[in-house]
Every structure is written in structure tokens, then in C-alpha cells.
Amino acid sequence: MTRIQGAEVSSGVTLPLMSRATRRVPMRSRFSCRGWTVITRRQDGHRFRVQFESLLELLTIQMAATLQSFIDLIEQPFEVPFVDAMGKPGTHHIDLLVVLDDGRKLAIAVKPAAKVTPKFREVLAAVKRYLPSDLADDLILVTDQDFTRAQAQNALRYIEFSKRPDVEADDAVTRAITSTHGIVRMRDFAMLTGLAGRGYRAAFRAAFRGQLEVLTDGLINQHTLVKARAA
């Protein structure tokens, strides 16, 4: 059977839609982690394949997809012709385009902090000057210094725990929040739902979304201290 992207196959699984990138990333590399992930477009729930050319780019994609204001993301969306400060013409392909719920479109350049040279910053400044306003509202540089590994792992876990909606567990967490007073451990809070692992995953989602106030830095786990956020 031919598998059509975006169509439901015999197992009941709906395949993600094709990548919308304008540039294909070669998947074979001796020097970086490359591959595919999937993001969900917020307004209609459609899932799209997204390619990445490094672990940092993958983490940036996942961090962006977990923003409360996130709507959509396209990798390798377009290139920008520019002229640098010395009058030399060039082109720069944007790594990511992130769309937010206030309508802003942010062009993202992803680069390890150790590789951000003064020359690279000059190039980005030139690209920003020539950035078409109908394609993006701003150009932002993201490096590995912009988020911690714990924040990235929390985002990845949130995405994993959100793949299968569980309204019953989410409702149980909402009820538990209204009846919880003071500071508790995530494990103890999840037990209040009576749903075992489903309750813990729903509690994690609530903590990540801010319904529960997280009081412990680092990875969100069973020992993390939380409390109901004041209305």
C-alpha cells in the first residue's frame, strides 16, 4: 500500500505532512547529528516533518514548539540576498521560521556559541538589514547558551507526554490543583489523580504549561517541588 503523507494508514496512524523547507539538508554527515522530527501546527493540529542539521537545531526546534505563543515552524524557509558592510553581495539561508500567536514571524539563525565569530555577527547584521518584512519581522540568533540542557530535556519530555491527548487525566489534574494547598512533590501530586502514570504525565504537562508552579530548578521529575499557581 502506498503511504500518502497526511493520510491515515491501515493501522490508524496518520502520517505527518511533508516538510515545507525550500532547501534539503543532506542527511549524511561525519560532523553533525542530522535527521527528521515532527512538529504540530497549533491552529489546525496538522503535523509536519521537519529536518534538522545538528543536535542544537533539533533542540531549538523542540524548544520553540513548546512556547505558549507557538503557532507554526518551518525549517530552511527561504534565503536572503544581502550586501555586507564592505559592499560584497551574498546570500544567507534562514535556519528556522517561527510563527507566534500575535502574528509575528521570527527568522532564526542557529549556531553554537563557540562558532559565533565577529564576522558571523556582521553577516547576520547585514542579513537583518535586507530581511524582507513580508517574510519575517525579525532575525534572532540562538546558541547553546540561550537555554540549559535541563530546559531542553523538559521540553523534549513535554512533547513526548503530549503526543496522545488524555482529557480524563488533564481533568483529574485540574481537580487536584483546586484541592491542593502548600508545596508537594510531583510524585505525591500525581497520586492525587488516582491515575498512576497517566496522572504523572498530566501533572508534568500542567507544570510545564504553568498550571503548577515549579519550585525546583533543573529537570522536572518525581521529586520536583510544585504548588498550585495562584489564580
Explain what you see.
With 231 residues, the chain is an alpha+beta fold. The chain folds into 2 domains: 108 residues, 3-Layer(aba) Sandwich (Trna Endonuclease, Chain: A, domain 1); 80 residues, no CATH class. The protein contains 6 helices and 11 strands. The protein has a 4-stranded mixed sheet, with helices on both faces. Helix 1 crosses helix 3 and helix 3 packs across helix 6. The protein is elongated and about 65 Å long. The mean pLDDT is 90.
Sum up the structure in keywords:
231 residues; 6 helices; elongated; four-stranded mixed β-sheet; alpha+beta; Trna Endonuclease, Chain: A, domain 1
CATH level-1 class of the largest domain:
Alpha Beta
Mean pLDDT: 90
What letter string, H or E per element, gives the SSE order?
A: EEHEEEEEHEHHEHHEE
- Largest sheet data: 4 strands, mixed
**Largest sheet: spatial strand order:** 3-6-7-8
Strand content: 15-25%
Query: Helical residue percent?
Result: 25-40%
CATH topology of the largest domain: Trna Endonuclease, Chain: A, domain 1
> How many independent structural domains?
2
Summed up, what is this model?
The chain is of the alpha+beta class and 231 residues long. Helices cover 30% and strands 23% of the residues. 26% of the residues are buried.
